[in-house]
Write the structure tokens for this entry.
Amino acid sequence: MRTRPHWLLLSLGALIVLMLFLFPMWWPLVAGRQPVILFPGVSAEEQVMLETLQAIDPTQAALTYISGTPTAVPEELQAMPELERPVILSRGVFVTIDALHWARGVVTLFKDAGGAHLLRFENFEARNGPALEVLLSIHPEPRTPAEVHQGAGAITLGQLVGSLGDQNYPVQSNVDLTLYNSVVLYSREMNVVFSTASLRPVIQ
């Protein structure tokens, strides 16, 4: 009977080791998800319009309407006021690193009428991980931490808002965006790159 606590501790230790080993499998089940976040600075009326467009074509409607790219807008929405469209500077697509580290979706860098910059994720989904951050990197296609931080180093835009859904990341006004060529999802805790998106200039 006296050995029971000993076996109990061994069983608990084995369970902890097993949970750590299976971490990539159970983490997405408990990680938070994020609802759609619309483009900032629109009125309540415009938000209704964008939500309607999202319901019609959730993959591209909001982005194409905001960016001015031709899209099929229903007649009942054509009379709605047009948004003040920011300028698209660059765009990229998230890629798969391996089976455990991946993301999908489009990332777009905008500049609004006031000169502020915003990084926006659309149709976004990612394999979650501990303390994922959104970084801007000089390297165009970084796959390792060394590549992410090469040159003058990477710029952190903050923690990943969620593993699913459209989301926005303001860029600090003092950042020279001509130096940065990719967006990176990076776990500082694990020192692992989860996904990258190379930013390509968009000609207006």
